[in-house]
Amino acid sequence: MKRKTDKMTATVIDGKAFAANVRGKVAAHVTRIKEENGITPGLAVVLVGEDPASQVYVRSKGKMTVEVGMKSVEHRLEADTSEEALLGLIAELNGDPSIHGILVQLPLPGHLDEDLVINSIDPAKDVDGFHISNVGLLGTGQKSMVPCTPLGCLMMLRDHHGSLSGMDAVVIGRSNIVGKPMAQLLLGDSCTVTIAHSRTKDLPDVVRRADIVVAAVGRSQMVPGDWIKPGATVIDVGINRIEKPEGGTRLVGDVDYDSCAAVAGAITPVPGGVGPMTIACLLANTLTACCRAHGLVEPKGLTA
Ligand code: NDP
Fold it and tell me: According to the model, what pLDDT value does residue 9 have?
């Protein structure tokens, strides 16, 4: 899952290969519980409206769910679906024993209350880990469903470093989806954690102290190499589309890859870093939810 290139000093953490490995472990465990227990884990994805990016995500989630041997159910609802209808569907899925994970694709159209909708999902089936109960369980160090993107980052960090204990970690970004749960997970692994955000004073100085930098900002190539402590590990969560000088577009992260890779000890690329891990962790969470629902042994190394 790691490779060195001649041009750079940093080890490249290959999220694509890592994610394939996670999906392989999930598939093997799914096969076992199908054979031994006659249970097939099921994931339901609910998409409201026709946001093109969301449609792409939902399609690839469905495809990969089937590839690991799980049941995949998709509910595509009109953009003007009422809150009542959406809550009704979620209640049905909450009560469906063949469904172990429910994901409502965000963002929702403006007339729908995202918090209300997310908090109507049974916390045991909340494979995105966004339900307030799961947020509280994670915050108090208890067993929870962990948000997929930070879980993927944690898995790659543990794989690279072994123990993270005592390391200085800086998370740039304080969103509920990435920054805050990432910080909780790093704290859970005994890092000394700083959460930086748009009001942080002297961000370069804060980042320079970090052994681990997780950038989850949403600003293309914002972190330059001269902010990075030599040898630090850089996890780039950002996905930003920019224009290429020769025309067309390309994806870049929140860190300036070339200058950071020249200084860092290890770095995740964009694309092919954190992104593929997010879906792999969604599948891992669905399997975990299924095992917990049926009192089965949980797969090792696929949860926080
Ligand atoms: P949000 O917009 O919700 O949060 C961005 C955070 O960055 C905020 O806390 C904000 O601070 C902070 N920020 C903004 N500007 C600055 C700045 N100049 N200096 C320091 N901090 C700043 O984004 P998300 O957390 O949802 O996503 C972050 C990135 O990760 C995006 O590029 C997104 O596309 C990507 N992403 C990738 C995923 C994957 O699978 N790889 C999954 C989810 C997200 P403040 O709170 O003060 O406004």
Answer: 84
